[in-house]
Structures are given as C-alpha cells and as structure tokens.
Design a protein that fits this description.
Blueprint (H helix, E strand, L loop, with lengths): L13 H23 L5 H4 L4 H23 L3 H21 L8 H12 L1 H19 L6 H16 L10 H26 L18 H15 L1 H33 L13
C-alpha cells in the first residue's frame, strides 16, 4: 500500500498532550481519592461531597482538553467526522439500555480510537458519553466521570501498537482482546466514582472514611464482585463479538473516510478570478 494512501490519525501537538496528561492526572485523583487519603482525613470526612467537587472540576478539564486538541489537530473535516461518530455512538447506547451489559457503543469507540488516534479517541469518547447522557436523561454527578472513563477507553485503543502496519486477523484479535479487558477496567473505574456515595452503615462493602486503605480496598473488591461483575462481563463479551463480526467492515469504512477527508491537508480557498 502506498504510504501516501494510508489513513492518518489526527496528530496531537505538545499543548494537547500536556492537556491530556493534566486531565488524566486529575482524573486519577478524582477516581482514586478514597485510596489516596489517610483514614480520618478531611477529604475522607466529606465523602458525600468529594464526588461533586471532582465532577465539576473534570467538566472544566475535559473542556480544556477538547479545546486544546481542536486548536492543534481537529480541522473542519475531523469535527464533522467527530459529530457523525459521536451521534452514532450515542444512538447505539440506548439499544441495550445497559441491560446485562449489552452496550454496543463500546466496540465503535475501540475501532474509532484505533483508526483516528488517541487524541481524537479521547474527545470522541467524552463527547459521545455526554451526548448519550443527554439522549437518555442520564445527567448527574456521575456523567463527568463517565466522560473521562470513556475518553480513556477510546484513547487506549489509539495507543495500541502497529497502527500503520498491523492489519487483518491479528489486528482484530488485538482489538477484541483490548475491548474485553478495557470493558472490565471501565466498569471498575466507574465503580470507584459511585462507591464513596454509599454509607458505611448501609453495607459492609461500602466506603468507610475511618477504615485503613487495605480495608477499603477489600471492601471495594467485594463491592465490584457483588454488583458489577456480570454487567462488565456482558459488556466485554458484546464488545468482542461485535469487533470480530463487523470490525473488518467498520475499520475499512473508517480508514476510507479518513483517507478521503485528508485531515492533515489544509483547506485553501482560491481567490476569485477577475
């Protein structure tokens, strides 16, 4: 294949990379603060308030990342494709309504991130989750965490090796394996966002601000096993099945659209003839 004919991912500038690193670092703290604070700390004492604080902060940071990536890598053609893919993903999410983990939008995020790169994947994942929340009425303090987690999910697919060389069955197997593992990681990360809302008096698997980190970690693992393992497994299986069945066609369509769009080719306008 002629290298000039290959689909090229949307490239990131230094400012976009710095913004992604910043929002990811804050996101790690936003998700993992129950395990990062000592027992009895002031932050732990406000377990019911902290998710709201981090939710508001994450909204601002995701907006900063989207603006930075738009400035360096998203031209009009890429924005148009972003809108189409985000609308498609948002429409796919209500199909299963989350029942038993049947969420077909995840496979589209994997394939899109693979073809269009980690920066585009992060923005696509965040925008898709935002649009689907508006579509399904799922707006709440959990939404910014969903946006960030889905951004990471799609970005990870763009960081997989061999974007220009690996093709065929080997690529599909790699994407399916990533989708399977990442589906569990997504579910676990989202559990971390909602788990501190539980009252320690309501359950022996709830977050206890006065307990040691090891105790809370054991509680969290028990919480994941009891509440979300089945959902995560269903999400992982659906992602693998759809990736293997329709992945080849979707990858070809995405790469064809990317080549024709020629994202890195500047748009020029000819001066009117006199």
């Amino acid at each position: 294949m002629n290298p000039q004919k290959q689909a090229r991912a949307v490239r990131l500038g230094p400012r976009s990379v710095a913004a992604l690193v910043l929002v990811s670092a804050v996101g790690v703290v936003g998700f993992g603060w129950p395990f990062l604070t000592p027992p009895g700390s002031r932050l732990s004492a406000h377990a019911q308030d902290a998710p709201w604080l981090f939710a508001g902060l994450l909204v601002l940071l995701v907006a900063v990342v989207a603006a930075a990536i738009s400035e360096s890598g998203l031209g009009p053609k890429a924005v148009a494709m972003l809108g189409v893919l985000a609308a498609t993903g948002a429409a796919l999410r209500p199909i299963g309504a989350g029942t038993a983990g049947i969420e077909p939008m995840f496979f589209l995020m994997v394939l899109s991130g693979r073809v269009l790169g980690p920066g585009f994947g992060f923005v696509l994942g965040s925008v898709t989750m935002f649009a689907s929340a508006l579509l399904t009425g799922g707006v709440g303090p959990w939404m910014p965490f969903q946006m960030l987690a889905m951004g990471w999910f799609a970005m990870g697919a763009g960081l997989l090796p061999g974007p220009d060389r690996l093709r065929g069955r080997a690529e599909l197997v790699m994407l399916a394996a990533y989708g399977f593992l990442a589906a569990f990681v997504y579910g676990t990360v989202m559990n971390m966002a909602g788990w501190p809302f539980m009252s320690a008096l309501a359950s022996n698997v709830a977050f206890d601000p006065q307990a040691a980190v090891a105790t809370n970690l054991a509680r969290f693992l028990a919480y994941c096993l009891a509440t979300s393992l089945g959902w995560d497994l269903g999400r992982a299986v659906v992602t693998v099945v759809l990736t293997l069945l329709v992945g080849p066609a979707v990858l070809r369509a995405l790469r064809r659209a990317t080549r024709r769009a020629a994202f890195e080719t500047p748009v020029t306008f000819e001066a009117p003839r006199q």
